[in-house]
Amino acid sequence: MSLFAKSFKRMIHPHGANTLAAVTAFLCLAGSSPWSYAQDWSTTDQRDFTELPLEALMEITVSSVAKKEQRLADSAAAIFVITQEDIRRSGVTTIADALRMVPGLEVARIDANKWAISSRGFNSRFAGQMLVLFDGRVVYTPLFSGVFWDRQDTVLEDVERIEMIRGPGAALWGANAVNGVINIITKRADETLGGQVSAGSGTEERAFGSIRYGFELNHQNQMRLYLKHSDRDNLRQTNGSNGNDAWHMTQGGFRLDSELTSQDSLTVQGDLYDGRLGETYSNMLPDYRTIDSVTSVFGANILSRWKRSLADSADLSLQIYYDRSQQKMQVIEEKRDTIDLDFQHRFPVGATHEITWGLGYRYSHDSINNSTYVMLTPTSQDTNLFSSFVQDDITLIPDKLHLILGSKFEHNDYTGFEIQPTARLLWTPNRQNSVWLSVSRAVRTPSRGERGFTLYTATGQDIGGGAGLFSAEWFG
After folding, report:
1. Is the C or the N end of the chain the one with fewer CB within 10 Å?
2. pLDDT tens digit string along 16-32?
3. What is the mean pLDDT of residues 444-469?
4. 273 strand-pairing partners
5. Which residue ranges make up each domain of the chain?
6. In this predicted structure, what is the pLDDT of residue 239?
7. Of 416, 333, 319, residue with least CA distance to 372
8. CATH fold of 4-455, please?
9. Which pairs count as long-range contacts for 114-123, CB under 8 Å and 24+ apart, including other chains?
């Protein structure tokens, strides 16, 4: 399916935008080719990374490897960065599709609204060994320790970069970072001043569009608001029948960035979404048949992050977020509330050590409504996760050789106390080359679907957990 897109940019003075100029988006269909139209009046600097030399690409800044800003070449990990320019040039309309650009990452689209994303093999829709963060907010669900990719979205023009680490990252990020870490980072509000409207239509993506507006409250405070909607059609099965996997989603949100003092900054952001997803379940016992249904989903989150810069290599931060999600499926209904608190402190010790340490706590409460097919017990559960970490970046030879030692310490309600250490050696002979070695341990936290789970056949027989009554789409 081909896609035609047109976009242009007009600069405006950030202090003189009192109203958003009127925009009319024209949509037209020509045969099977969809057309889209986008107009952007932002002050964002659009850099063409394809025109940069290799040396400049090594200077790209990342933050997911060591929980601090550093050059890509100074990162002791297999990391790949998807820039905003990459996203714009690719023409993708979802974050999941954008991840296809990452080498070594398997992105399999199951149907119109479902993806299986993992690295190092063993991929499935419910792959639970890849930790995913969205501006520091962990987005995996404890229902199966995986990610519902249909609910991870924002205005793609507001994504600054996506950092993908292949390999264990649990020493800093904790459980479930076994095969890697995906960190989706959006732009600050002061980088998206002005307005943008985009819209499109096609045969499968029947209607999609977004509107975003960034403005200054004063010289220290900037805010961004956005609203996005998409309406995607059912795909067709090989026999030509309807796939019953249509996808309708509406989402909105905001971001506020404040410079409180010359040392202190504050970010407050939140999102709200509501959608409907087509699902097809396969009843394998006692006879094969399919069940078509519609899953309704709803979610809201709000995050606040305060950061203080103490020196060039010293800072501390405090982050707290609340996440509410609920979904009503054919086989089960789940409501979940999550509160997460995270503190981090980084400081130098002498000329050769840089210490980063932190504390964290996560509380999650769920409420389950069972069906005649699936039962989770108990129907309501509270889980607690206590964590701490420490990492020492030791300079053995200035600008040449670094030894990084650290570990994450966690206590969860399933397996108790877990230690996840790492040791990394980074050699940088020059500004263009780096070599690193590492040894790490990472664990995956068991999920609700693995504890207290029961399936029933059509005759009412209890066949226990781990069976595949709804194997095609649910517990595969």
Report:
1. N
2. 334 333 333 333 333 33
3. 60
4. 251, 299
5. 4-455
6. 81
7. 333
8. Maltoporin; Chain A (2.40.170)
9. 114/149, 114/150, 114/245, 114/473, 115/149, 115/150, 117/147, 117/149, 117/182, 118/179, 119/166, 119/179, 119/180, 120/166, 120/179, 120/180
Q: Supply 371's token pair.
A: 């069906």
411 token code pair: 């206590």
Q: Are 325 and 336 in contact (CB under 8 A)?
A: yes
For residues 451 and 438, what is the distance between their CA atoms, to the nearest angstrom? 33
Instruction: Between 55 and 395, name the one with better pLDDT.
Output: 395
pLDDT band at 393 (very low <50, low <70, confident <90, very high): very high
| Measured distance CA(138)–CA(105) in Å, rounded | 19
Taking CB atoms within 8 Å and a gap of at least 24, the contacts of 380-384 are 381/448, 383/142, 383/412, 383/413, 383/414, 384/412, 384/413
Q: Locate 190 and state its tokens.
A: 């002061």
**Cα R_g (the chain), whole angstroms:** 23
CA distance 115 to 95: 11
The partner residues of 279 in beta bridges, in order of sequence, read: 293
CA distance 171 to 389: 7
For residues 449-476, average pLDDT: 49
Q: Average pLDDT for residues 416-421, to the nearest whole number?
A: 95
- Distance, in Å, from the CA atom of 392 to the CA atom of 357, rounded to the nearest integer, reads 9
3-class SS shares of the chain: helix, strand, coil, % to 5: 10, 55, 35
The closest alpha carbon to 7, from 33, 35, 31, belongs to 35
Return d(Cα 277, Cα 61) in angstroms, integer. Answer: 37
Most confident of 76-80, 198-202, 298-302: 298-302
- Note if the bond before 378 is cis, omega within 30 degrees: yes
